[in-house]
Amino acid sequence: MKVVLLQDVKSIGKKGELCNVSDGYARNFLLPRKLAKEANAQAMNELKNAEAAREYKVKTETEKAQKNAEILSGKTVKIYAKPGQGGKIFGSVTAKELAEEIRQQFGVEVDKRKVVLSGDIKAFGTYSFEVKFYAGISAAMSVAVCEKA
């Protein structure tokens, strides 16, 4: 019997997949527990629509990430920090601060978890970092840490 899985089922498949299982397993286990539904015309149409919606979402997210990466690639973010002792920064520049400055200076929303720093920024100067938008799409940027006047 062909069924469309409504949830992940161990050793059968993942949610949304079309699987061929024995009639008894489907009638006595999968269907009563609402783990799957019979693959009739309506279920197949829903499966096809869900797949098309998923592909459209991935396509639009990829295009948006590509556009944002083009905007930010090679740009420099300026951050002003309070000076501490010995020409160092009082505290450090964090990914959260970088994400906020990118939003303010370039108008692009960036999640702080997507900002990848090579190390802590605890001194004045220019540092490079990376912003990851989507699988395989990222932008290399730099940050200029200046002394607050």
Automatic annotation (TrEMBL):
Naming one, the record's GO cellular component terms include: ribosome
- The keyword RNA-binding is annotated on this UniProt entry: yes
- Give the UniProt family note: Belongs to the bacterial ribosomal protein bL9 family.
UniProt xrefs under InterPro entries = Ribosomal_bL9, Ribosomal_bL9/RNase_H1_N, Ribosomal_bL9_bac/chp, Ribosomal_bL9_C, Ribosomal_bL9_C_sf, Ribosomal_bL9_N, Ribosomal_bL9_N_sf
One Pfam family, short name: Ribosomal_L9_N
Q: List the protein's name.
A: Large ribosomal subunit protein bL9
Keywords for the protein's UniProt record, in alphabetical order = Ribonucleoprotein, Ribosomal protein, RNA-binding, rRNA-binding
Q: Name one GO molecular function term.
A: structural constituent of ribosome
Keyword Aminoacyl-tRNA synthetase among record annotations: no
User: Which GO annotations describe the biological process of this protein?
Assistant: translation
The entry's function note states: Binds to the 23S rRNA.
Residue span, Ribosomal protein L9 domain: 13-40
